[in-house]
Amino acid sequence: MNKKQLNQESKPLLHVEHFSFAYESLKNPLLHNLSFTLHENEITLLMGASGSGKSTISLCLNGLYPEAVEGFARGDIYFQGKHIQDFPKGKLNQEIGIVFQDPESQFCMITVEDELAFTLENLNVPASEMAKRISEVLQAVDMESCKKEKIHELSGGQKQKIALAAVLLLEPELLILDEPTANLDPVSSIEFIHLIQQLQKERKMSIFIIEHQADDWLDITNRIIVLGRNGDIIADHHPEIAFTEKRQVLEKEGIFLPKAYDRSLDFDGPSPSPVAKDKVCLSIRDLSFRRKKQPILQGIDLDIHQGEFLAIVGENGAGKSTLLQLIAGLIKKDSGDIDLFGKPISKWKESELRKRLGYVFQNPEHQFITDTVYDELTFGLKLNGFTQSEMDKNANRLMRQFHLENHTFSNPFSLSGGQKRRLSVATMLDETPDILLFDEPTFGQDANTTAELMDMIFDLKTNGTSIVFVTHDMDLVDTYCESVYVLHDGKIAFSGEPRGLWDQDELLEKARLRLPYRIRKHTKAGEYYDLIH
């Protein structure tokens, strides 16, 4: 790998000195006595276990925390030699731009054009210049065709790019990206990283990236900083040193090792053999769905069998989440049939349907309906007349399983991104349904919690629950799934075993997918081949 070397001559841009932060009391801080410096023109990757405070430190760096929350801070942060508390209100937020982990949380307007215009208005840009600036920034992030679109109708990956465009309009000196590729299809993820590299060269920005998966960032990264579970820095090195000399420390902390450094992957095998498909739980025939007269899905045929582990994959905007919502009965089809155990899904009573079919949203916050983690885990049980003792026992079991025992009475919206995802999965397991639908279930998880989550899901499958994943992670598909459906141009372009998909070079390119690492590590042949392979 030709990784960028850190330029020791570069000037300091941001300096953190003995900084601690806590949401409740500095006696038990989330971030503990952090000291580090970010330099001009530097690309730094911040890693750490889920819940270690990665997103929190980013919001402290640009002064949003502790002011925006009920938090407590100690220590100092300097930007360009000036204490961040000495900046005029709003000025630091322009100098240090953040693309949040959940891009929806930073949108204020309905359409893409209005959102970007709103940013420019706040910068006092003359109206006569706005159209040109908006076109330029949309061109930079390859989203020109979406200028008139409503933001809530965009895919998760498209929203991520619009959030980036809005921040780029600020022309920041430091750009912070919080898990920026988590919602992007495999090829879009690579293209996004190339875009960041290009923008960094053109605009001479420093980039601070929060990521669980370092693999595709390595070639442009100067340095890796790793937060430990206790809120302190356990590694701050060039990537080569971090993933070799600090390997054991990082593994113990649950950090994903880049696949090029993970020797266990040398023994990876292909995906499991398919289950005996003798009992169909859910059947879809000739399903079509339109949004504002625009066809999203058309002529979809799909069967989910008992105990089957099935993946639905495809590029951003292909309709994967829409298909999952149709299966769950959350939105209404235009035509076709969806039958659950031989009965049209529209004929099921809501209470009975939710016992048989569980759905985990792409954005976990969309399914939270109570004020505490405990109430979230017991909501369904309470409706079904379980005793207090039974609810306590079940909630305690799930909190232990999903590492949420220290957050019993925390508001679900106050959790970290990874903790929210684990809670959203746990809420579906208060009673075990026949079919579990997951939209990007491993988003925000470190190596340990991902492995534990997949073990729990695989146990459910072994006991007869059907599992459906919408995912961009082809390694996950290759390792766990017996069947895979590829959505492209609103139709099923492939259905079968994953090993059959890996031979479809033309389809992989069209659907912007990528071969799993165990296959592509042995093959190199050209730039686009590298993108999909």
TrEMBL record:
Subcellular localization(s) per the UniProt record: Cell membrane
Protein name, UniProt field: ATP-binding cassette domain-containing protein
One of the Pfam families matching this protein, by short name: ABC_tran
Gene Ontology MF terms in the entry: ATP binding; ATP hydrolysis activity; ATPase-coupled transmembrane transporter activity; cobalt ion transmembrane transporter activity
Source organism, top-level taxon: Bacteria
Alphabetical list of InterPro entries matching this protein: AAA+_ATPase, ABC_transporter-like_ATP-bd, ABC_transporter-like_CS, ABC_transpr_CbiO/EcfA_su, ECF_ABC_transporter_ATP-bd, P-loop_NTPase
Domain ABC transporter residues, every copy: 14-254, 282-514
UniProt keyword annotations, A-Z: ATP-binding, Cell membrane, Membrane, Nucleotide-binding, Translocase, Transport
GO cellular component: ATP-binding cassette (ABC) transporter complex
Broad class of the protein's primary localization: membrane
Membrane topology classification: Peripheral membrane protein
UniProt similarity note: Belongs to the ABC transporter superfamily.
Record bears the keyword Cell membrane: yes
Species of origin: Ornithinibacillus caprae
SMART domains xref list: AAA
Signal sequence interval, chain numbering: none
